[in-house]
Amino acid sequence: MSGCYQPCHNCIDNCIHTYAGIQLRNYCAKLMEKQGHEEPTGKAKITPGFNLPCDFVIHTVGPIVQGKLTIRHEELLHSCYESCLKIADENNVESIAFVFMFPNRPAAEIAVQTVKKYKQSTGSQIKVIFNVFKDLDREIYKELL
Fold it and tell me: Which segments constitute the Macro domain (predicted)?
């Protein structure tokens, strides 16, 4: 939750923490210290956005896929999306953007399926944005949506 510590690393985690300002890292560090352990994969926490042009940042630890993609990886990614949507609704967040590093097609399928199922089962009106970095990803999401 406290961000990437590799200088000049171009990951989304580092970008969020850089532009939010040191206040976000400090806030997250205090949260982690208070809970006494690292954030489990698939769960979510919400923090203020600080210097970002948004009210909140919802943090989740996604599964790291090294090698073959497993059912467990897919279940954990599903849990990430669901946990983020739930905490967003609990805090009256009107829109949410998702960014994850995961194999392209399975990530898109899990994301779309989870969001559709969540919105249908809860009646949530949250606006969901899937942020993609590659044209391939955009095409996959267009196909699925």
Answer: 1-145
CB 63 within 8 A of CB 81: no
CATH of domain 40-144: 3.40.220.10
What band does 3 get if pLDDT is binned at 50, 70 and 90?
confident
Amino acid at 102: F
Task: Give tens-digit pLDDT for 54-82.
Answer: 999 999 999 988 899 999 999 999 999 99
Q: How far apart are CA 75 and CA 77, in angstroms?
A: 5
Contact between 47 and 24 (Cβ < 8 Å): yes
Number of Cβ within a 10 Å radius of residue 100:
17
Domains of the chain, residue spans: 40-144
| Lookup result for tokens 């580092």 | 14
E strands, the chain, in order: 44-48, 56-60, 95-98, 127-130
State the chain's maximal CA–CA distance in angstroms: 43
